[in-house]
Amino acid sequence: LASHDDTTEEHVKMAVAAGATLSEFPCTLDAARLAHRNNLKTIAGAPNVVRGGSMAGNASALDFARQGLFDILSYDYMPVSLVHAPFILNDELGIPLPDAVAMASGNVADALGFHDRGEIAPGKRADLVRVTLAGDVPVVREVWRRGARVS
After folding, report:
1. 18, 64, 78, 149: which has the highest count of C-beta atoms within 10 A?
2. In degrees rounded to 5, what are phi and psi of residue 58?
3. What pLDDT, in 10s, does the model give residues 55-105?
């Protein structure tokens, strides 16, 4: 169960009381902090990271990341941002690239109970995306699903 667009501490408390385990797109730092303190896996929008802020005027995902307040990246309305955002988190905030990539892969799989995917490891599905950088923009070069190249 996930909450969505929590703005106040009351919103987060209601989500916790309802049994939520995910906080999707908290709108304020206060809501994100309380979600984190209550062990909700917090989801931030990758487009928010790429743009450097919220399109709707909410809190910046970069501010959440600076404070260690989000666990998962979602592509929301801009799928390509899911590839780009981990590189920005690495370049601008110094988050190690494997940790930033895990926000778009392994952390997601773990939070949703998909223990057969999300990382490169023996026994996992081997769903992979190979990218190269064109300047500072990642470009998808190849995709594998279950170890077989599909693109």
Report:
1. 64
2. -80, 180
3. 899 999 999 999 999 999 999 899 999 999 999 999 999 999 999 999 999
Query: For residue 46, what are its two tokens?
Result: 């990758």
| Edge-to-edge order in the sheet of strand 41-45 | 2-4, 22-24, 41-45, 72-74
Residues across the chain: 151
73 strand-pairing partners = 44
- Cβ-proximal residues to 95 (8 Å cutoff; 6+ apart), any chain: 65, 89
Q: In terms of pTM, does the model score above 0.85? A: yes
9-55 pLDDT, tens per residue?
999 999 999 999 999 999 999 999 999 999 999 999 999 999 999 98
Kindly give, in sequence order, each residue whose CB lies less than 8 Å from that of residue 1, ignoring residues fewer than 6 positions away: 15, 18, 19, 20, 21, 22
- Cβ–Cβ contacts within 10 Å for residue 141, how many? 10
